[in-house]
Design brief:
Blueprint (H helix, E strand, L loop, with lengths): L1 H17 L14 H20 L6 H17 L1 H16 L3 H18 L6 H17 L17 H7 L13 H23 L2 H7 L5 H4 L9 H20 L3 H17 L7 H11 L6 H21 L22 H14 L6 H5 L3 H9 L3 H20 L4 H20 L7 H15 L4 H21 L37 E6 L2 E6 L19 H10 L3 E4 L8 E4 L5
Antiparallel strand pairs: 1-2, 3-4
Helix pairs in contact: 1-2, 1-3, 2-7, 2-12, 3-4, 5-8, 5-21, 6-7, 8-9, 9-11, 9-20, 11-12, 11-20, 12-13, 12-14, 18-20
């Protein structure tokens, strides 16, 4: 816990410095520290992506980061000082209950961050993606080695610059830091709400009552958490832009929208809110910065995808015929990825059977999936139905509903996994709850306390999800041990998993031993790492084996046909 806390101070310092880059254009609301840090995240991600094309995100990158942040803080010291002063002054005005609540959130975030992660994706590609970035940067054709490595979320690129891998491999804890700074902002708005009664302030402060749910993502560098948290903040800013006609809101919506898209491209419909806000201003001058930032973001996204997969808009195949590089992802694998992700939301495994389902039958299967999946699918539909009845009088709520509908359609038609719907689910849910709990202070405080009690119990005794999932990894229970105070647990559940070296033509790779639980598992294996079962499956059924492009691993991987004896 203590080392993680120290790492958070470094992240705070670096992101604060980088966040001052465009202060000339964005006068951050009351010099708010959350917005400064999130702007810092955005530019850190852009810088890291371009840097990783040529170099690893290792100690030297951290050193450059530290120097650049220090110089920016020095050149903008009055602004940095103002941000810190405003933050400390704001905290001093918190009620005693809010101060204690924030202190407990910090403690529980550190406890949960230091626990063993339990998300399946962490064991398939989170760890490996970050490990490749730390050791080699962006590697050509990496998706040919392990299909999931082609995703390379912007959150993992950001995490790889903040995990201090040159000290230890156990600091993939950026999600914990995000929850802490977001909670501070929410408590600020809670204090403001108590004095002005603005429902929008209540809406964003109610993220605190969802912490028990958000903490499920905290121990892994899951890209789902930042989208779940930041999209409600964008919604908050969008509503504020109608209540207070300020260009600052538009610029922050621009930065945060581009940030979440770089983290998870399926949330791209969030740009609808930016478009509505820009049209409302009727001032073309407000368009300039969003257009410039969009161009930079798209460039970094395309370059990253071309390097890793050879597909400029991966996972989409659009424009792939324009790029002809030898490391291009095997199209058979791309087709397999599309089919697999399409079926996953319905928990089906036969593409022919799935593609022959009619729309109504397919929808009915999705709606009635077992356990947590079906429950959340029903809940999102219920909230989508109820939302207009609570917020039908205001124009901005109509625009929000249009966005929610389009985002729902995009999620449903691509891969309707319940976790993808969570940003919309949380935003709609909290907007409705804000209407129901308006001026009901005691009930809200009760929810705040209930969250703390549950977080304390789960942090100390561990979480057991056996009742809501059949997933073996997510069903494993991990409780607090005293040594976590000094040293965080491993970044993988499988600390003792053995890895065996195999050779296939010119590629030597490491695969988990027979103790591995699933087809995609690589956990924290040595580089290059891929599961032997996966390699053999793709060799047999998709005519693909990964091969090195040269003797230097940094030169990446290409797809080759198996040579049978």
């Amino acid at each position: 816990m203590i080392p993680i806390l120290l790492s958070y101070f470094f992240i705070l310092y670096i992101s604060l410095g980088i966040g001052l880059i465009i202060n000339k254009w964005i006068r951050l609301e009351n010099y708010n520290i959350l917005f400064t840090i999130l702007v810092g995240f955005f530019f850190q991600l852009i810088i890291s992506t371009f840097y990783a094309v040529f170099f690893p995100l290792d100690f030297y990158f951290f050193l450059i980061d530290l120097i650049v942040s220090t110089l920016l803080i020095a050149f903008h010291f009055p602004i940095a000082k103002k941000i810190i002063q405003n933050t400390t002054n704001s905290f001093s005005k918190f009620s005693i209950s809010s101060k204690l609540l924030f202190l407990f959130i910090i403690i529980f975030a550190l406890i949960h961050s230091s626990l063993l992660p339990f998300l399946t994706d962490n064991e398939s590609y989170y760890i490996q993606t970050i490990k490749w970035l730390n050791n080699y940067g962006l590697v050509k054709g990496l998706a040919n080695l392990h299909l999931f490595l082609g995703q390379s979320s912007g959150w993992h690129i950001l995490q790889s610059g903040f995990n201090f891998n040159f000290i230890t491999s156990n600091f993939n804890d950026l999600n914990g830091f995000l929850i802490i700074i977001t909670s501070y902002f929410c408590l600020e708005k809670w204090e403001t709400y108590k004095s002005n009664g603005n429902k929008n302030d209540l809406f964003i402060s109610l993220i605190i009552i969802s912490l028990i749910f958000l903490f499920l993502f905290i121990a892994s560098p899951s890209p789902d958490l930042p989208t779940i948290v930041i999209i409600p903040i964008i919604v908050y800013l969008f509503i504020e832009s109608f209540q207070n006609n300020s260009s600052n809101h538009i610029y922050m919506i621009s930065v945060l929208s581009l940030l979440v898209i770089l983290i998870k491209v399926t949330v791209a419909p969030i740009l609808i809110l930016l478009l509505f806000a820009l049209v409302k201003t009727k001032d073309f001058n407000h368009w300039k910065l969003p257009i410039v930032l969009s161009f930079i973001s798209i460039s970094s996204f395309i370059i990253k995808n071309i390097v890793i997969t050879g597909y400029p808009l991966y996972p989409l195949t659009i424009g792939n015929e324009l790029i002809n590089v030898d490391w291009k992802l095997n199209y058979n694998l791309q087709d397999f990825y599309y089919q697999t992700t399409s079926m996953y939301g319905w928990q089906m495994h036969n593409w022919e059977e799935f593609s022959n389902l009619g729309f109504i039958k397919k929808f009915w299967i999705w709606l009635n999936l077992p356990r947590l999946n079906g429950l959340l699918n029903k809940l999102i539909l219920l909230l989508m139905f109820l939302f207009p009845f609570f917020n039908y009088k205001k124009k901005e709520m109509l625009y929000l509903y249009i966005y929610f509908l389009i985002q729902f359609i995009v999620f449903y038609t691509t891969s309707p996994q319940y976790r993808f719907f969570l940003p919309v689910l949380l935003s709609i849910g909290l907007l409705i709850v804000a209407n129901l709990l308006h001026r009901r202070f005691n009930i809200i405080k009760l929810f705040f306390v209930l969250n703390l009690v549950l977080l304390a119990l789960l942090g100390v005794f561990g979480l057991n999800l056996k009742g809501i999932t059949n997933n073996k990894i997510m069903s494993m229970k991990h409780s607090l041990i005293p040594s976590q105070i000094i040293s965080p647990r491993s970044n993988t559940q499988f600390e003792d998993l053995e890895f065996i070296e195999y050779e296939i033509q010119n590629l030597k790779y490491f695969s988990p031993s027979k103790d591995s639980l699933f087809f995609w598992q690589t956990s924290n294996g040595p580089l290059p790492c891929a599961n032997k079962d996966m390699i053999e499956y793709f060799s047999k059924y998709y005519n693909h084996i990964p091969q090195m492009r040269s003797k230097n691993i940094k030169d990446g991987f290409l797809s080759s046909k198996p040579k049978y004896k």
